[in-house]
Amino acid sequence: MADEASFKDYYSVVIFGASGNLAQLKTFPSLFGLFQRGKLSSKCQIIGYARSDLDREEFERRATKGIKNGEDEKIKQFLGITSYIEGKYDVDEDYQKITKRCEEYEKEHNVDKPQRLFYLALPPSQFALVLSHIRKNCYDKKSGNFFRVIIEKPFGRDLKTARQLQEEIAPLFSESSIFRVDHYLGKEMVKNLLVLRFGNELFSSVWNKNNIASIQISFKEAFGTEGRGGYFDDIGIIRDVMQNHLLQVLTLLTMERPTSFDSEAIRDEKTKVLASFDKIDVDNILIGQYGKSEDGKKPSYLDDETVKSDSKCVTYCAFGVNIHNERWDGVPIVLRAGKALDEGKVEIRIQFKPVAKGMFKDIQRNELVIRVQPDEAIYLKINSKIPGVSTETSLTDLDLTYSKRYSKDFWIPQAYESLIMDCLQGNHANFVRDDELDISWKLFDPLLEAIETGKTKAELEIYPYGSKGPKKLKEFLRNHGYVFDDPGTYQWPLTNTDVKGKI
Questions:
Q1: Which CATH superfamily is domain 12-152 in?
Q2: What are the structural domain ranges in the chain?
Q3: Neighbours of 435 (CB within 10 A)
Q4: β-strand 345-352 against 45-50: which pairing, if any?
Q5: Is the dihedral of CA 91, 93, 94, 96 positive or negative?
Q6: CA-atom Rg of the chain in angstroms
Q7: In tens digits, what is the pLDDT along the chain, a chain of 503 residues?
Q8: Burial of 388 (0-12, 13-18, 19+ CB in 10 A)
Q9: Out of 143, 266, 282, 291, which could bridge 300 as a Cys pair, Cβ 3.0 to 4.6 Å?
């Protein structure tokens, strides 16, 4: 299916917001990454579009700002297929410049069926305006399914605004033309979840309430807002990474087996499992805001001059999720995320139920750990006899750390590279569908309202910058079914940053 819908040879990629940070740090570097790997046609054209008055030299400087380890000759070739148009976002005549350039390019290369991709590296407030002008001035009916639009999260800040955005977009383009980017769906370990689950009978047969005791998905950042608190203060950690990134990962972990790798089959199953999620208990949550580090060297959240002095913004949150279906009913699931913690790490922990005691007095639980970043890895904690004459057991692991298993020359695309390639191939599987988005906001709206209006029994705890998070975290996890290893029985595999795994 993807091959039939793939862009081939002569196509146009138009980047709106081409002078901004997102385009400079993510979009252009990702396009270059695909280009140097031969995944982006050397015959295509890339058009940058923005309001900034940029000469060729300045445009090239910005377009290559985020490129790392690129060969000079490859960068030169890449720039050779780029151009820039200065234009406003509310003027038809400026959009017609884009159309004219596309038509000239298509005529030059005898393209009968135009292939055009429009990437909106813009704030969501601009989406409806820009898309309406694209539809009016740049849409070509002959393109059919080869006319595509990429938009970036956030897709609204609550159910109401998400629906409003959808109501504005829906009349302009069909759902098949829209690709909503949640870049976590492009990460290698997230894309591997379906194969890991359904391609291994070892896991597929035990992936249920009869064998799994608890699930955790954690997102840890080792830095704070660093002067960008003015933006974050209006978003908070829940909107920033939990309603989107972590929820998307959870749906892939818990959905039923799709009939195929067809994108709609996968998205159908994600939507079905979301409909089985129970309401979040707004009183049984853990929320926090980071304060100064214990040594006083790192500032508190409120020390950020861009943040309101009395801000109650949540920079750490943990809450439980209950799924009421035959597979998961009764399994405690925790999503947790925070900023300014002791390390940067994103991982999934699936802890299995204990073995029958009998011959064992004390034996640890098996646990499957999927480390999304840094240093992608999958490892299974197992019990093994200590070598020698003793029958004493020790907790060890079966370890698939990608950097050890695969050569350094093995290409693992960055998340944005992977998603742009999916879009060019017409593969929607790793993009968010409209009904899926609607259900997710229904789930999170009551939680956000309770926190922001003070209608929760949970109190905002101040935790030190560089700590593990709120002091009540361990207690919270225990209350949600997680059993900690006995001290000294196991050492987690190290990451590239030489940081031992922690809660």
A1: NAD(P)-binding Rossmann-like Domain (3.40.50.720)
A2: 12-152, 186-479
A3: 16
A4: unpaired
A5: positive
A6: 24
A7: 444 689 999 999 999 999 999 999 999 999 999 999 999 999 999 999 999 999 999 999 999 999 988 889 999 999 999 999 999 999 999 999 999 999 999 999 999 999 999 999 998 889 999 999 999 999 999 998 899 999 988 888 899 999 999 999 999 999 999 999 888 888 888 989 999 999 999 999 999 999 999 999 999 999 999 877 888 898 999 999 999 999 999 999 999 999 998 999 999 999 999 999 999 999 999 999 999 999 999 999 999 999 999 999 999 999 999 999 999 999 999 999 999 999 999 999 999 998 887 777 778 889 999 999 888 889 999 888 788 777 777 788 888 887 788 777 777 788 899 999 999 999 998 899 999 999 999 999 999 999 999 999 999 999 999 999 999 999 999 999 999 876 555 555 554 444 444 45
A8: exposed
A9: 291
245 is catalytic: yes
Task: Determine which one of 109, 133, 183, 245 is catalytic.
Answer: 245
Helix axes 434-452, 263-274, angle to 10 degrees: 30
Global pTM value = 0.89
Count of H-run helices and E-run strands, the chain: 18, 15
